């Protein structure tokens, strides 16, 4: 990659993405060859917001490269509770680690943190902003199952606050992908993502109903609609119910449809889909390991 | 036309006249330039003055201070039609238009309350200037041209 950090999917070129995905495929094919690759290196995990799979998969990825991790632990027991700024925290922690992974509830946190550190920094989610390492594993999964060019993808759910959606949509502009966005009116893509998609000349269509587009999709990427985005429970139930899928929904879909979800899901994908060939979300989650190994390998190997 | 209308605000001997400011933006112009009268310069402000070009316009005159191009370029975000006249001994010796800068810092506060630039961090707000608005360098929120004045951070 051209840059030292991974902050936003909008900074990634097709070459950057393919370099990570190709390396991930090499790792998948022969993980043993990478077992001691970064022995002696330490990855700092700074999670200012709860995370299970992202934190664990970065931890696991670093250890599978022969390295170690240091974890800030929960915010409640850290110096952040004493009022330390994020800028100070990352400047201290960079002294303990060769690279940092940051998750933070404020949009733009990773961009700011990267201004204060010299070690590579990965944005593992900044509020409703970006989540680019998730996007790399999403793209890896899409490439394995449907291919990244000549792709028709539907992205459904909370498009306004869904950081995985923002990153994925921007990254897909590097490929020959036709993107359909399916959401309630109130949760449409934010202005800045829409701006970037139009600026890149991407084919973008927006829908409020999945039926309008389901038969033509190669991939359906489902995201969770959160209760807290709605003023009251009734409104939430009414809206969320329209964006849930089950095996009956899929009667209208192509036999080859790949269904993805960044997880955790609540009830937007019925368990009766889990055993079908469409269900790819657990494979997608597992791809977090080779893809994050590949990302760390590339960032830690750069001459800086 | 200007001669007659400019008489509504007294002429200055030396300094800067910022003319053709969008009506209603004169006080924002002063705020952006950090001119609040405390440093002693004489400042005249005309608001809603008739204008051939704008219908109504505001005009700002600052005695004893020549504003540089980089100082006034940020005004292009709220007063894109503004012209800058440098006056010496009652004569306009230089007349310039405001030019859109590529970026602005510490002028606009990000309207996204959850943006890191609104947290208690040691950074300034910073925006990249687009053709029809500005974009936060931190959270990427886009502020449209017509929303800039409402988000000025100049106090």
TrEMBL record, chain A:
A GO molecular-function descriptor: aspartate carbamoyltransferase activity
Reaction equations catalysed: carbamoyl phosphate + L-aspartate = N-carbamoyl-L-aspartate + phosphate + H(+)
InterPro entries the record matches: Asp/Orn_carbamoyltranf_P-bd (IPR006132), Asp/Orn_carbamoylTrfase (IPR006130), Asp/Orn_carbamoylTrfase_sf (IPR036901), Asp_carbamoyltransf (IPR002082), Asp_carbamoyltransf_Asp/Orn-bd (IPR006131)
Top-level EC class: transferase
Keywords on record: Pyrimidine biosynthesis, Transferase
Key word Transferase present: yes
Aspartate/ornithine carbamoyltransferase carbamoyl-P binding domain location: 5-144
Known partners and oligomeric status: Heterooligomer of catalytic and regulatory chains.
Name of the protein in question: Aspartate carbamoyltransferase
Organism: Haloferax denitrificans ATCC 35960
UniProtKB/TrEMBL annotation, chain B:
Required cofactor(s): Zn(2+)
Keyword Transferase among record annotations: yes
Cofactor binding mode and count: Binds 1 zinc ion per subunit.
Ranges of residues in domain Aspartate carbamoyltransferase regulatory subunit N-terminal: 7-98
UniProt: Zn(2+) binding residues: 110, 115, 136, 139
Pfam families, A to Z: PyrI, PyrI_C
Record key words, sorted: Metal-binding, Pyrimidine biosynthesis, Transferase, Zinc
Highest taxon above the source species: Archaea
One Gene Ontology cellular component annotation held by this UniProt entry: aspartate carbamoyltransferase complex
GO biological process, one term: pyrimidine nucleotide biosynthetic process
Domain Aspartate carbamoyltransferase regulatory subunit C-terminal: 104-148
GO MF entry, a single one: metal ion binding
Subunit structure: Contains catalytic and regulatory chains.
Family indicated by similarity: Belongs to the PyrI family.
Primary role: Involved in allosteric regulation of aspartate carbamoyltransferase.
Name assigned to this protein: Aspartate carbamoyltransferase regulatory chain
């Amino acid at each position: 990659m051209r840059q030292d950090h991974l902050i936003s999917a909008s900074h990634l070129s097709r070459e950057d993405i393919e370099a990570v995905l190709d390396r991930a495929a090499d790792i998948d094919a022969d993980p043993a060859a990478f077992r001691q690759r970064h022995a002696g290196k330490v990855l700092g995990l700074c999670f200012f917001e709860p995370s299970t799979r992202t934190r664990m998969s970065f931890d696991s990825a670093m250890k599978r490269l022969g390295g170690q991790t240091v974890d800030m632990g929960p915010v409640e027991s850290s110096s952040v509770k004493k009022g330390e700024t994020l800028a100070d925290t990352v400047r201290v922690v960079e002294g303990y680690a060769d690279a940092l992974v940051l998750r933070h509830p404020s949009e733009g946190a990773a961009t700011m943190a990267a201004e204060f550190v010299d070690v590579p920094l990965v944005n593992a989610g900044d509020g409703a902003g970006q989540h680019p390492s998730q996007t790399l594993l999403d793209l890896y999964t899409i490439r394995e199952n449907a291919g990244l060019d000549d792709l028709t993808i539907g992205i459904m759910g909370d498009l306004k606050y869904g950081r995985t959606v923002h990153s994925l949509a921007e990254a897909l502009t590097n490929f020959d992908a036709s993107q359909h966005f399916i959401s309630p009116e109130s949760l449409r893509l934010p202005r800045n993502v829409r701006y970037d998609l139009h600026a890149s000349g991407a084919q973008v269509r927006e829908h409020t109903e999945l039926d309008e587009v389901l038969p033509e999709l190669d991939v359906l990427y489902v995201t969770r609609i959160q209760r807290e985005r709605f003023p009251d429970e009734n409104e939430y139930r009414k809206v969320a119910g329209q964006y849930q899928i089950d095996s009956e929904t899929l009667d209208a879909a192509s036999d080859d449809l790949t269904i993805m979800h960044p997880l955790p899901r609540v009830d937007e994908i019925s368990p009766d889909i889990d055993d079908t060939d469409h269900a790819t979300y657990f494979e997608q989650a597992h791809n977090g390991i080779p893809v994050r190994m590949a990302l760390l390998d590339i960032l830690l190997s750069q001459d800086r | 036309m200007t001669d007659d209308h400019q008489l509504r605000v007294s002429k200055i001997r030396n300094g800067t006249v910022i003319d053709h400011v969008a009506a209603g933006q004169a006080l924002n112009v002063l705020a952006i330039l950090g001119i609040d009268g405390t440093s002693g310069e004489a400042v005249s402000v005309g608001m809603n003055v008739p204008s051939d070009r704008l219908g109504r316009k505001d005009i700002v005159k600052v005695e004893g201070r020549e504003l540089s191009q980089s100082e006034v370029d940020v005004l292009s975000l709220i007063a894109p039609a503004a012209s800058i006249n440098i006056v010496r001994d009652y004569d306009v010796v230089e007349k310039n238009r405001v030019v859109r800068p590529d970026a602005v810092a510490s002028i606009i506060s990000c309207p996204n309350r959850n943006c890191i630039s609104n947290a208690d961090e040691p950074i300034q707000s910073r925006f990249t200037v687009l053709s029809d608005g500005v974009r936060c360098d931190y959270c990427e929120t886009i502020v449209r041209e017509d929303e800039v004045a409402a988000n000025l951070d100049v106090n």
